[in-house]
Design brief:
The protein is an alpha/beta fold. The chain has helices at 31-45, 48-62, 72-78, 96-109, 123-135, 145-150, 152-160, 175-188, 206-229, 244-250, 279-282, 320-328, 338-352, 358-368, 389-392; strands spanning 17-18, 21-22, 68-70, 82-86, 114-119, 138-144, 164-168, 193-196, 235-239, 260-268, 284-288, 291-295, 331-337, 377-381. The strands form 4 sheets. Strands 3-4-14-9-10-13 form a 6-stranded mixed sheet, sandwiched between helices. The protein binds pyridoxal-5'-phosphate.
């Protein structure tokens, strides 16, 4: 395959609605900024020069196209072919950079000079700080204190890249709190500031914009499957935190009605409230960060704490398009727990020589549990596991 996959550019959904989900539940003061962003994004994504800039950075800087790897030993284990889309090989080690580069180019085009972002595991903050260094933008990353402690290496990297990492909230604060703080900053400084959200969440147009930028994963993977496997996959499997790597790879297969789509949420320690991150599986409809979707909340509508061994999957909400794909039955979603993810982490490492992110390990674990069919499975290997070594060491395979 020559050059990066093409983005799948669709018109923004009217009012940002995906069935009964999505929308834009924000204070009136934010509405003009969101409208400006939508108009600028539509215009940019229709401009061949903007797309050429994006593809140029994706190819020459980020390392696209990422390989599609036929995982032969894992396939033996699964009893059917397994193909891995290697987003772990993208610069900075995860798919997040696709979105950060695209949004930074857009922000520059809009004449913004300052970037704010939220981060949980630090992967989105790192991708944003990286893109800001490259494109010479001021960068402020909001991060919960607990996450800063857990992801000290990513904090150090962001500082090295010239970003300012702002600690948020009490000692237990995580991604939800960082997101709220980033939104607050943006709303206050919207004239010269762009908010780079890290997943397909938040108010319209973000879910649509981030999906479009991540669709590079799916359009590449679909072409590579046809080229290398000679057919489309029977199932596409991806981990779901906010849902950006999953929708990015699903986007290319939505019209292929024979291709099953499976999203994998964090089952954490179990189904008790606060012990997992399974918004679709165990949540209820509600509004979080400006968008209606499935969220983890108590009966009074208070957002519940979350847990996953992989920090990238512990967001208490999920992208509205996923909520709709579940409602329409086009995609299905399962939750795998910490133990199952760690086992898959070790298995992939030993069988294929690939140390995966714990987020991606959830997808690998789910792929190995598929029992229907014998056709090829395409797994989005969303990131590499270097960041997770400390978490995994000391937890031996079962
Ligand atoms: C952030 C992250 C995820 C989860 O985010 P999505 O928006 O659901 O893709 C998954 N894998 C890796 C490696 C990540 O860094």
């Amino acid at each position: 395959m020559n050059g990066p996959g093409r983005l799948i550019v669709t018109a923004p959904p009217p009012q940002g609605r995906y069935g009964e989900f999505g929308g834009s539940f924000v204070p009136e003061t934010v509405v003009p900024a969101l409208q400006e962003l939508e108009a600028a994004a539509v215009e940019a994504l229709g401009d061949p020069r903007f797309l050429a800039d994006f593809y140029g950075l994706e190819a020459g800087y980020a390392g696209r196209p990422t390989p599609l790897h036929h995982a032969r030993r894992l396939s033996e284990r699964a009893g059917r072919p397994v193909w891995l889309k290697r987003e772990d090989l993208l610069h900075t080690g995860a798919h997040k950079l696709n979105n950060a580069l695209g949004q930074l180019l857009l922000a520059k085009r809009m004449g913004k000079r300052r970037i704010v972002a939220e981060t949980g595991a630090g992967q989105h903050g790192l991708a944003t700080a990286t893109a800001c260094a490259l494109l010479s933008m001021e960068c402020v990353v909001y991060m919960g204190r607990e996450d800063m402690r857990r992801q000290a290496v990513n904090v150090a990297k962001m500082n090295l890249l010239g970003a300012r990492v702002e600690p948020v909230g009490d000692p237990a604060a995580t991604l939800k709190d960082a997101t709220s703080e980033a939104i607050r900053d943006w709303v206050t400084n919207v004239r010269d500031t762009h908010y780079v959200i890290g997943s397909v969440v938040g108010p319209h147009p973000y879910p649509w914009l981030v999906r479009t930028l991540q669709s590079v994963i799916g359009s590449e993977a679909r072409a590579q499957m046809l080229e290398l496997a000679g057919r489309l996959p029977e199932v596409v499997v991806a981990s779901v935190g906010g849902g950006s790597n999953a929708i990015g790879i699903f986007a290319a297969f939505l019209e292929d009605s024979d291709v099953k789509l499976l999203g994998v949420e964090a089952g954490g320690r179990g189904p008790e409230p606060g012990a997992h991150g399974a918004s679709l599986g165990l949540g209820t409809p509600g509004v979080l960060h400006g968008s209606r979707s499935y969220i983890l909340q108590d009966p009074d509508g208070q957002v519940l704490p979350t847990h996953s061994i992989s920090a990238g999957l512990d967001y208490p909400g999920v992208g509205p398009e996923h909520a709709n794909l579940m409602a329409t039955g086009r995609a299905s979603y399962v939750a795998l727990d910490d133990r199952q993810a760690v086992d898959a982490f070790h298995l992939l490492t030993r069988l294929e020589g690939i140390i995966p992110a714990l987020e991606s390990s959830h997808a690998v674990a789910a792929a190995l549990r598929l029992t229907d069919g014998k056709g090829p499975i395409l797994v989005c290997l969303s990131g590499r596991g270097d960041k997770d070594l400390e978490t995994v060491l000391g937890r031996e395979p079962a």
